[in-house]
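FAQ: What does the model actually see?

It sees only this:
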Amino acid sequence: MADKLTLEGLNAHLWKSADILRGQIDSADYKGYIFDLLFLKRLSDVFDEERERVERDAGADVEDPDEYSVYIPARARWSAVRRQTEGIGEYLNKAVEEIEDVPSNAAKLETVLTTIDFNDDRRLGDARHRDGLLSRLIRHFSEIDLRNNALPEPDTFGRALEYLIEKFGDDAGKKGGEFLTPRKVVQLIVRLLEPQEGMRICDPTCGSGGMLIECAHEVERQGGDPRNLSLFGQEKNLGTWAICKMNLLAHGLLDADIRKGDTLRQPQLVRDGELMLFDRVIANPPFSLKDWGHDDAQHDPYGRFAYGMPPRTKGDLAFVQHMVATAGDRGMVGVVMPHGVLFRGAAEGTIRRQMLEGGPGVQGDLFEAVIGLPANLFFGVGIPAAILVLNRSKPAERAGKVLFIDASKDFEQGKRQNYLRDTDVERIADVFRAYQDVERFARVVPLDEIGANEWNLNISRYVDTSEPEQRIDVGEAIAHLREAERIRDEAARRMDALLAELGYP
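And it is asked to produce this:
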């Protein structure tokens, strides 16, 4: 029996697929073709594996779609795809349409595979060039077996897909950062929110789904069953939405409800005319989005902006208010924000004050922690960011207080960006759980003090990370100076004596 493919081997093979298209297609486009073909190969291999089981059972119709996790029609199976030599793009388009047209596949796949046009001459060139590129990709993916029994662990393919997403984010720089948050930042926020089995969790700007998947991993690490989580999300970019769906399916999270659309302008997670509510809301929205929907927000039917209308050209606190509005009575919010939201005045200052102090019709004392991160952690974004932890039901001992953590100096420096280490994540999470002062790192601050600072949440106002001034004993310093002078004079006398012995005047 051949050795099973290792995760490292699979990662390397998948990333080599980018070499086939790099230079042939714009980097912002080619990832979609790779993800779609790779996912088709995975679905087909798993179907073949399940078909062998159905044939062994012999009591079922081998072509009954209800017998399979995802049914693959004959013309869409990889064995048929790899036989094509001409018109490959058109063939693939029809093949993926047939997969999605199978009634039992509809809820799981719903246009996941058909967001890409394999016959697009603007991106893939004329028919001959198109066939050449696609046939090379098909041959490349044909070299690996992606059936479950060919992989070392059940989650190997999902982890490899995440690796590929991360590599594309790193390769594309800022454009990749639109759908990727660094893994350690995701792990940190999830550790702070402590998702539990049975919870409803939402990411309103879910990108490729990494935060939702990490919530499932955290529940599993704590001994829970991640299948008992209810995962929800919304993503504006159609291509990224499709990658998110693939990513969740690859990790066995088949029931996640991921909607398409603009969360601020048209929230899709709505039931009976009301926003759906969640136990945990987690996100890394785009920083300071200019065209976020200010005019639409003036007439928001869901009352999401009760704390104040954010500035027309900065959507940061629009996302935060949406998240607060979708958190249940005992819900928590974890969100990445630029530092500007901590101290900018005018409308944003009013919103901060309302969220801290409260007022008519709005709950105050929402901030549980403000955590400053190192600069240059995010792809293509050099500015430092902060994590805000908000809680609709803070523990009694934390009421009327905010924990400030300055973790800006705790990181590993890389060539193009900085990284949080496991030890950094653990330290921040431990301090958050303890909710106590740590010299030059963290401080619990009462709301009265924050109010006296005009509701400014700038971390440096509350946590002094400067090194303490060294106390100098003047008498001891003079003694050291005199001793140094004595040693100097003695050395000079010795030098004069040696020069005299050598005959120098």
